Task: structure prediction
Amino acid sequence: MSAASRTGIAIVGCGYVADSYRHCLPLHSSVLQLVGVWDRDPQRLAAYRSCWGDHAYGGLDEALGDERIQIVVNLTDPENHADVTDAAIAAGKHVYTEKPLAMTTGEAIALRDRARAAGVRIAAAPCNFLGEAAQTLWKAVRDGRIGRPVLAYAELDDGMVHRANYQTWVSRSGRVWPARGEFETGCTFEHAGYALTVLAGMFGPVRRVTSFAALLIADKKAEPPLPHPAPDFSVGMLEFDNGIVARLTNSIVAPYEHRFRIVGEDGALDIKEPWDYACPVVLRRPSEGRLSRILERRFGGFGGSRVPHVRPTPFRGGRGKPTMDFSRGIAELAAAIRENRPSRLDEDFAVHVTEVTEVLQYPERFERPHVVRSTFAPIEPMDWAR
Ligand SMILES: NC(=O)c1ccc[n+]([C@@H]2O[C@H](COP(=O)([O-])OP(=O)(O)OC[C@H]3O[C@@H](n4cnc5c(N)ncnc54)[C@H](O)[C@@H]3O)[C@@H](O)[C@H]2O)c1
Result:
């Protein structure tokens, strides 16, 4: 693809996660061209610029008025997602937004409808569903490796964050992890999408949700104290259209465990870390004999065999580098626009994920169990994973 036909993008919000996107962007340099960036915090903008050297706009209007820009990448904090997305839609730009699309389902639906009326598209993070591990897992399910899938467990316990020295978590351009915002947004809004997108992408829309959420440790060493800390634990049972049920746990109070397990009639598939595209997918056969039952009991799921990834991960994560290609979702939206096909992370999918997430984090806002109203069309596997 020639430089002129690459999709022009602008990043709005140059905070902690922007560095991860920027780090991954060269993986897509043949299809995406970062034209400029904007952050309303001048110090942040300057720190980002001196790290990456990208062109900085003088304001949001200037970025949105740039005719070279087709996609606005909204990396602001969740409180500001809707305003920035709305402004981009009004300017006739497609939007790739960090999750959540909005902080309420109503707001998410309004954004989707405004985008449709304006003839532009929205797609939302996370995009780990497009990663090699998730696509391999999904293909193994489609290929019948575990028989009929019936149950999923997804634990997104993100460690005992209230005891961690999170003040020392610093991104490449020097942004300290925005703890206050994370604690006020809530770990469910921050993280549930990493499991929900994979589950819903594979199994289709969630039909009913029964959930529980609580603020278990209000004091997380934030100074001054947080005025509105969100729940730091949630658990929900999701029932999918096709009868599969899933338990999804989110917390920032329990030791780190990101287990993702799909159970079928004939076996189970495990991913230890759905945030890592290169994570092995492990197939476990049922323990039938006496010895294998004893081993399973003693060693907690001893054994299992690796399912070869459908393709090698085209980057190396770890040692301070992201284990996810954050920019793959932007490239997917750009390809969908170019090819005039639905994006795998489109606005209906994002509304659905937002609705289920809101029920998980704020069960008191909904009837119980909540019948999910939003839906989305079936999603295709990545071409390289068919
Ligand atoms: N922090 C993480 O580890 C992480 C990881 C994955 C995804 N995310 C997601 O990324 C998004 C951003 O998170 P973050 O951690 O980078 O937050 P952050 O607070 O570090 O960065 C947000 C930036 O957006 C800017 N901003 C806010 N409103 C703006 C506006 N109207 N115009 C221009 N700039 C504006 C802020 O000044 C700030 O620099 C969130 O949706 C979060 O859920 C964060």
